[in-house]
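Example record

The entry below shows one chain as it appears in the dataset: sequence first, then structure tokens.
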Amino acid sequence: MLEKLLNYGLLQGGWFICVLGVAWGDPWIGPMAIGIILAYHFWRSRDRRREILFVALAGGMGLLVDSLQKVGGLINYHHDTLAIPWLAPLYIVSLWMLYASTFTSSMDWMRRSYALAIAAGAVFGPLSYLAGQRLGAISFAYGQEMTLGILAVVWGAANPILVLVSNRIFSPPVVSRPLHVPAGTGLAD
């Protein structure tokens, strides 16, 4: 349980560092922080090769999906580090990779059901972009309601694809090395 809480906390912390870094004009701080979080995640993993493969594939998927959203004019990414008109910025790709690092830990519950993955993607994907927009990291070109509706469809499709890839790579499911928790602390499972 402590492992999953730590994994989820690192997801949330990495997300905030990345998004606030962009909003405050420092788009490199997020990918650097996420790189450290991912290095820690890979170090703790029992199957580093598979974890690295899945995270890299998720990053590739994020590059494709968010590049299409950029080219289509759906999302305006602020402080784009590479400023390539047709390519999603590094910080958004690193967020996809960070999200993928939760699939064998805090978000493993989604791997049990594609319906759960669709619902979670359709709800929480757009909410993540909305939070990023409210914090000033991105802006919506077509208005909030239309953009969130499109993002619900995109993430309702993307999330179960990530689950499918995860289930193919991690069969049987892989868990991270357990944290050592001293006896008597009340934090052990």
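Notes for this example: Confidence is low (pLDDT under 50) at residues 173-177. The chain has one domain: 2-169.
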